[in-house]
Design goal:
Elements: E1 14-17, E2 20-23, E3 27-30, H1 31-34, E4 35-40, E5 53-56, E6 72-74, H2 76-85, E7 93-96, E8 105-107, E9 114-116, E10 120-125, H3 132-140, H4 142-152, H5 162-166, E11 169-172, H6 176-214, E12 229-232, H7 233-236, E13 237-241, E14 250-251, E15 255-258, H8 260-265, E16 270-272, H9 273-276, E17 282-283, E18 301-304, E19 316-320, E20 327-329, E21 333-338, H10 355-364, H11 375-378, E22 382-385, H12 388-426
Helix pairs in contact: 3-6, 6-12
């Protein structure tokens, strides 16, 4: 409900406040009122040495969880100086107040002492009246994040001062029991989301391992034997460039157009033109002006020739276009069209993703801030090639793994939507648990 709701639109039992419409028995409290202590970490970076105490910075505070996997450690002498001023305890709420991750928040789940940098503040709530886990969920809402963004407005440096932290305001149920019930319900959903994220990460690792073995011949599928051929890409493909067109020439009308930026941002290794054409950017240009090599056919592979990182130098998309829909490859792309039918179309989705092939792309890439492969160098890359039947069998296994991961990602997206809906209802008092 909007804070701008008129009196006639406010349901019975609710009231209008400066932060929105909430139940009549709820209050709006500042973090200063709700906390017994609000403090940030040391403003003097310690020397990373020794192995005594964890040293926590903003990189360890994620959106809703505490991650110490990348935390450094410092010696006892430095820690004692920092901890005298900033004595973080288990159950305190950690809030990032500096840098790009400002607004990230998590509960401290550690029993041990640790040192904190000034980029993070901790909030210790009055435990007899307020539940830290409830306030964590409030901070993670869109309205909580907007408050933080508004508090930073006007600062030359992206920073949330302690004074601004103390002025953050949130709607609060009248009893600790209701706060805890809301926090528990949302925490259960968080646990489901976290378990799905971990399962997806595990499935991706399994798939990555399977690719390294199956695509290099280290592990053979039952029924297949014999030596693989190692071929230059020059023997397998004819290479050409795309049509130079800028983003401002694109619209929702014209012919489908593949921009190299769309390859970089895609999570998929193929594009099905028939099913996805409504979402593909369009270029309003006569096909007579497009050289035939720039028109993408079924089974073509499109590589990027520019990347801001090494990983991106091997980025590519396989085109599925059985209906022969006009599809133009664009700026900073290299189009690879098969010379002979030696590579299965589904196999093409995976065969460039092995460590060995990626290393070859890195080796032949040129440039400093922006690097990429050229048509002159891409032909020098070699690829192990099994028989077409073995390629199809390998691709089928990897495709099944992709389908399983996709199904889990859809389940994760649904869980996140449910969590958002629950937050909107429970943290505004539209639905009461107690």
């Amino acid at each position: 409900m909007s804070a701008e709701c008129s009196a006639e639109n406010i349901p019975s039992g609710y009231k209008k406040t400066e932060i929105g419409v909430i139940p009549e028995d709820w209050d709006v409290v500042t973090t200063l009122d709700a906390c017994s202590k609000i403090q940030d970490g040391t403003h003097f970076s310690p020397q990373i040495s020794g192995n005594d105490y964890l040293y926590i910075t903003s990189k360890n505070i994620r959106f809703g969880y505490f991650d110490i996997s990348t935390a450094s450690r410092i010696d006892t002498a430095q820690h004692q100086v920092i901890y005298r001023r900033c004595d973080v305890k288990k159950g305190d709420l950690l809030l990032t107040k500096d840098g790009a991750s400002t607004g990230n928040a998590a509960l401290n789940t550690l029993d041990e002492e640790f040192s904190l940098l000034s980029s993070v503040a901790f909030l210790r709530f009055h435990q007899s009246k307020y539940c830290a886990a409830y306030f964590l969920q409030q901070i993670l809402t869109s309205s909580g994040q907007h408050q933080i963004q508004d508090a930073m407005a006007g600062n030359a440096i992206t920073r949330l001062t302690l004074e601004k932290v103390k002025k953050l305001r949130f709607p609060v149920p009248p009893t600790l029991a209701e706060q805890e019930a809301i926090a528990e319900a949302l925490s259960d959903t968080d646990a489901l989301i976290e378990s799905l994220e971990q399962l997806i990460a595990k499935k991706r690792q399994i798939k990555q391992g399977a690719m390294q073995e199956l695509l290099t011949g280290k592990r053979r599928l039952p029924g297949f034997s014999g030596e693989w051929k190692v071929k230059l890409l020059d023997d397998l493909f004819d290479f050409s460039g795309g049509l130079s067109a800028s983003r401002d020439q694109l619209s929702m009308e014209g012919y489908c157009y593949l921009h190299y930026g769309d390859i970089h941002t895609s999570k998929k290794n193929f594009i099905d033109v028939r099913s996805e054409q409504q979402d593909i950017p369009k270029l309003n240009i006569s096909l007579k002006k497009v050289a035939s090599p720039s028109l993408l056919n079924d089974g073509d592979v499109v590589f990027v020739d520019a990347s801001e990182d090494d990983e991106g130098t091997s980025r590519h998309i396989v085109v599925f276009n059985k209906d022969k829909i006009p599809f133009i490859s664009g700026l900073h792309t290299i189009v690879a069209k098969s010379k002979k039918n030696e590579l299965d179309k589904q196999y093409l989705r995976y065969c460039f993703q092995t460590d060995d092939v990626k290393k070859q792309f890195y080796f032949f890439a040129v440039g400093t801030k922006v690097s990429g492969i050229s048509k002159t160098n891409i032909v020098k890359i070699t690829l192990p090639v099994p028989s077409l039947s073995e390629q199809a069998a390998i691709a089928a296994i990897l495709s099944d793994m992709d389908s399983e991961i996709t199904a889990l990602e859809e389940k994760l997206a649904k869980a996140r939507q449910i969590k958002q809906g629950m937050m909107q209802e429970l943290l505004t008092g539209r639905i009461r648990l107690v």
